[in-house]
Amino acid sequence: MTISRREVLVGAGAISALALSPGGVTAPRAPWQLPAKRPVKVTEHEWIPLPDGVRLSARLWLPEDAATKPVPVVLEYIPYRKRDGYRYVDDLWGPQLASYGIGYARVDVRGSGDSEGVMVDEYSEAELGDGVACIEWLSRQPWCTGAVGMRGISWGGINTLQVAARAPRALKAIMPMGCCDNRFTDDAHYVGGALGHTNYQWGILFKIVMAGPPDPDITGEAWEAEWRARLAATPPILETWTRHQRFDAYWQRGSVVLDYAAIKCPTYIVDGWQDTYANPVGRLLSKLNVPRKGLIGPWGHTYPAFAQPLGLDWAYEEVRWWDHWLNGVETGIMDEPQFRAFMPYSTARQALPNEIPGRWIAEQTWPPRTHVVGYHLNDGALSATRGPRKDLRYRAGEIVGLTKPEWLDRLPIEQSSDDLKSLTFDSEPLAGNLEILGYPVARIRVSADAPVAKLVVRVTEVTADGKSWLVTYGLKNLTHRTSDSEPAALVPGESYDVEIPLFMTAYRFNKGSKIRVAISENLWPLAWPSPTIVTLTVTAGASMLMLPVRPPERHPAEMPIPVLHHEAAKEAPPTYQPVVPDASGRYVIEINRPPLSREVAGVGTTVSREVGEVSEIVRGDPNSCRWRQHAQSAWKRGSWDCTVAATCEITSTATTFHVRESLRALKNGIEIFARTTEADIPRDLI
Questions:
Q1: What is the mean pLDDT of residues 642-652?
Q2: What is the 3-state secondary structure (H, E, C) of 116-130?
Q3: Contact, 98 vs 74, CB < 8 A?
Q4: β 544-549/505-509 pair status
């Protein structure tokens, strides 16, 4: 079974096989109506030839009459095995779009699924060049009008932006979802310049993606030779990612943050507030200079139609977008506000499985109509007025982060236990509701007693019952305080005025609640600990929290996209309790997802997977940290029986990371490939 980043980081249930429109209670439709449906023809496999002779495997959905009535086509281009691993998702989108006159092409990236060649990294030059070639090939087909769009979520959203930045001639519009503009800080690798746990959670599963076998029903007798070539080419990718500890040329490749102007086609950016990938949406809307729209709903790392318990009839909205830009039909979509979002009145953890209280809001343009309200971090309080300066010392010997252990997965729980281990600043109870939209910023005057240190700022709502719920946060490796490309060691004892951008958010702090700022030196296991136990000195009276406050609108915004209320969706998100140390002070977090196995309808392949991880650290000893991950996927149909397994482990001293990773493959239960690599990697101000 192919494991996508989305499934890895948010769990197998995030993308459920819901019908896109039926099964929910829909709000009244806007005046524009979907076009009449057309019968759809599915082509299971089509080779797309590339200039270097490699062929990519595509699955196509087209109206049956496309040969005489050509249609535009939308490309989704990812490495997640269209034949088996991602088939059930494609089988929802393809028929929906094609039935409304928008062709759909699902292409496996070079060296993945059934496409030829090998894959050695994310978003390689080969991948992006192939994407341009695919668009050109699609545009030339007799059933195509010559207009091509591109869409996708996660990997598919990220490479949509990157391919668009190459300005293919036939690419007329894009819809990236759950995407990022900066590969270093916003794509699961380095969080605020700190080494992220997700770098390894995702990386171990990416090894499975690179090493998976093609299907003999598509590739024929050459399948085993192709598979062995993939196994041999699969690199020690975790070593590679760990060696690049700053925003160097490696991460700059494909990071559109360096040249937003390279994207020249209309862009619709979509995400959910529970998804960390929502953070770049505001930047993209601000920086792109093309017709653009943005939407952020109350869901996680998933398609809007799949979101539970509240989603959107996304086929309706996609067809409006593609009809406008690919068919030239006036759908009214560009006459509407540039940005829509859900304004939540509580955190998702408080509300789910029930619908999150809140409302849809709209902004005619981005940046939004907000004004900055500053709160001063005074001695023990968060105040509208500045208090006297006072140095507050914070020694980072405790483990903070157990209420928010991961970058993307598992909704953060109530924060009080981490707050008790942090410097906290509370406002007075609010006299009325206070709504924010955009990027809060913390401006902190801080010094450290070590050359390498981090600074974490969490903003929570403290409700009348004294519970603390996470609204947004930011983490900064202080050696990256002015540059992710050229970090600089701290001078111990020297004070710095550091600006910490917090994650983009929309939220209503409720009347009677308090706003809390909690400061710590780290979040574990979300980020690797600093080399030594650090003492921070934060200057109260010289530090502030800046909130983008949005005035309430006089009239509620109209929502033209039909809303889906999934009445049957009453399953609460998985909960957890902060782990406690054993007698030696060791904290251990172990996650082993239950093995999954299923037969792929229409193909007959049984796919299975296992995923697990262990994170551990001893209080007071940052170099006792150890992260371990393992994953295994298997494919079986008749005599075709393949298994790929991978493991990784990272440990450190104060000066060096030690990374060990392995890859193993079995055919019919017999090992045909095994490789283990080990690397000692100098810490680069991390």
A1: 98
A2: CCCCCCCCCHHHHHH
A3: no
A4: unpaired
Are the beta carbons of 400 and 529 closer than 8 angstroms? no
Q: Which CATH superfamily is domain 5-34+42-183+259-363 in?
A: Alpha/Beta hydrolase fold, catalytic domain (3.40.50.1820)
User: What value does the mean pLDDT of the chain take?
Assistant: 94
| pLDDT score at 29 | 43
Is residue 512 within 8 A of residue 429, CB to CB? The reply is: yes
pLDDT above 80 (res 606): yes
Residue with tokens 């990416």: 206
In the numeric block, which tokens belong to residue 416?
A: 């009080």
Q: For 512-551, b where at least 16 C-beta lie within 10 A, e where not — what string? A: ebbbbbbbbbbbbbbbbbbbbbbbbebbbbbbbbbbbbbe
Strands 103-108 and 71-78: parallel
Give one word for 466, left, alpha or beta, with left for phi > 0 and alpha for psi -120 to 50: left
Domain with CATH 3.40.50.1820 in the chain: 5-34+42-183+259-363
Question: Does residue 137 surpass a pLDDT of 90?
Answer: yes
Tens digit of pLDDT for each residue in 98-117? 999 999 999 999 999 999 99
Q: Are 656 and 627 in contact (CB under 8 A)?
A: no
Q: What angle do CA 172, 312, 290 make, to 5 degrees?
A: 25
434 in helix, strand or coil?
Answer: strand
DSSP assignment of 609-648 equals EEEEEEEEEETTEEEEEEEEEEEEEEEEETTEEEEEEEEE
**Where exactly does CATH 2.60.120.260 map onto the chain?**
371-549
Report H helices in 147-292.
Answer: 155-164, 198-211, 216-219, 223-233, 237-243, 249-252, 281-287
HEC string for 259-270? CHHHCCCCEEEE
Give the whole-angstrom CA distance, residue 75 versus residue 73.
Answer: 7
How is domain 371-549 classified at the architecture level of CATH?
Answer: Sandwich (2.60)
For residue 674, the model assigns a pLDDT of 98
Instruction: Give the C-alpha separation, 121 to 108, whole Å.
Output: 14
